[in-house]
Amino acid sequence: MPDPAGALRERLQPAFDAVVPGSDPVVRPSDRADYQANGVMAIAKSLGRPPRELAQQIADAADLAGLASVEVAGPGFLNLTLDDAYLATAVEVVGRDVRLGVAEAPERHRVALDYSSPGVGKELHVGHLRGTVIGDSLARLLRFFGHEVIPRNHLGDWGTPFGMLIEHLRDLGVDASPEGFSVGDLDAFYKEARSKFDADESFAERSRQRVVALQHGDEEALTLWRALVNESIRHFDGVYRLLDIRLQPEDVAGESAYNDQLDAVVADLERAGLLVESDGALCVFPEGFTNREGDPLPIIVRKRDGGYGYAATDLAALRDRVDRLGCDRLYYVVGAPQSQHFEMVFRVAAAAGWVPESVVTAHIAFGSILGEDHKPLKTREGETPRLMDLLQEAVDRAGTALDERGAGYDEGERAYLAEAIGIGSVKYADLSTERLRDYVFDWDRMLSFEGDTGPYLAYAHARIRSIFRRLGRDGPQPGAAVTVTEPQERALALALLRFEESLAGTLEHFAPHRLCGYLFGIAQAFSSFYEHCSVLRAPDEVTRESRLVLCDATAKTLSLGLSLLGIEAPERM
RNA sequence: GCCUCCGUAGCUCAGCGGAUAGAGCGCCGGCCUCCGGAGCCGGAAGCGCAGGUUCGAGUCCUGCCGGGGGCGCCA
């Protein structure tokens, strides 16, 4: 039980229960002590008792022996200071554990995690970065806590544009056999098709008919469509590999995958009495949504032309994730602009009876990436940058930054580090900003070895590892005892013990930036410790081994923490 | 027009209803003949505005101002 906040809460609870059963001690990190319990004032108010007096009563009643000391402060806070011996022992325990003392969740969930979800026929661009990176980090965190994650890469592979893409392929007489097929530059191909669609009415008409044919199972259309999908997936995989994203081809569950379930969706909605025909389309009007004119806003399940749109596939996918996959958590890592859409989908799904009490749905929304002008990021040519180009530039810039540091890496190591640092920089910059907020993309800042950046954390880790290399060992002596006497040792030990607390908060709020902030704090605490407390030149052997345990636990925390963000921490750099 | 997100230091960002609002970069002043300068220690500088709820509000509610996004057959 090394989590200090949890331990304190547990030990305080009986004293709080004795006054008001079930009252929350409200244990929080404090800058006046290690932690503070804020819960006294609220119950003092409800009882009409003087808060300081009540605080003292609870402080006297609480059994904190071997854990912490307590003192009443201010209007009725309980300031809690952990015993040095507790800190020392807890760090020893944590440092020996591969999970660094973090327990798995008591309740395991099967989670459908919808993320990345690009559109087939186009390349990934910067707009896909956040959802992909945040989703992947959440997948790692969920798995770390013991949950079963079923990633759902909900490809846009069934919509209107496919008519024109297929038609364009036919015009070119493309060989659709797996070996022969390649459109090379996907974006250029898409643009060609698009401009033909806009310029040539007969082509546009053919395209529209081709979509209908596709959705009705036309063999030729399907063959070309499959070739297009496969080509796109090949491209996506390349980007995912470079990004070290764990999405696999088997995680693909595009819109097309639900085609044969759409009729059942309609039937369900019909049965629930939700379906209304409006302007020839089949709609559901969930309560509380209105359009510009103040009229009820529909979810269009089936379009006037008989085709199904994304609302229908989203509903089918949701239903599938509960019914067939047996998921009890449905998370959607999708950009903030779609929040209303998901609110409506969740509302309709609940009304249709597809979402049992035990199932939780959540839209994990995120903001967009802005250029230095605070407008959506564009290339010099005014286009949305391709993700592959952006990542390649990150690797190139990281390589240059490494050269400037003049460490003389050999060719292979330089390439490995440039990729690890470059990709890590981009991911960290993305993950370290609060999800819902738009953030400004700045190469110089994210690639700096100073400040709150990916390279800084990676470097901190590598430096610690170098201590052990210098020593000719891989870690501290097994069973070495920790003592915390210097304030910097104490501060570092306390920070290390907050790892579990940090991870829990990160997952509770789906907020990787919390973990980023925590890891940066660890690196800072270590830096201060390292400045003030000699390790290799410690005054005596016992102190040295104790400090080595702190070093080791720090390196492990950084490494594991970064890995949960999907960022590599090299042994040396 | 309605809905929604955002508005915190010069800049980029933290801040789970609690005490004196933090960090990074930049700026100013010290320290370190140092285990790879990722320096270390200190300083100046800020909650868009107005009400309300609360023992306590950057945080919750209402209104306003400013910015982004969404609002029927695209995804």
Q: What tags apply to this protein structure?
A:
RNA-binding, 4 domains, 573 residues, Rossmann fold, 52% helix, 4-stranded parallel β-sheet, alpha/beta, 20 helices, Gyrase A, domain 2, single chain, 4-stranded antiparallel β-sheet
Provide a brief overview of the structure:
Helix content is 52%, strand content 9%.
What this model shows, in words?
The protein is an alpha/beta fold. The protein folds into four domains: 79 residues, Arginyl tRNA synthetase N-terminal domain (Gyrase A, domain 2, 2-Layer Sandwich); 79 residues, no CATH class; 111 residues, 3-Layer(aba) Sandwich (Rossmann fold); 189 residues, Isoleucyl-tRNA Synthetase, Domain 1 (Orthogonal Bundle), CATH 1.10.730. It has 20 helices and 13 strands. The strands form four sheets. It has a four-stranded antiparallel sheet. A four-stranded parallel sheet has the order 6-5-10-11, with helices on both faces. It has a three-stranded antiparallel sheet with strand order 7-8-9. β7 and β8 form a beta hairpin. It starts with a helix and ends in an 8-residue tail after the last helix. The relative contact order is 0.10. It binds one RNA strand of 75 nucleotides through α2, β9, α11, α12 and β13.
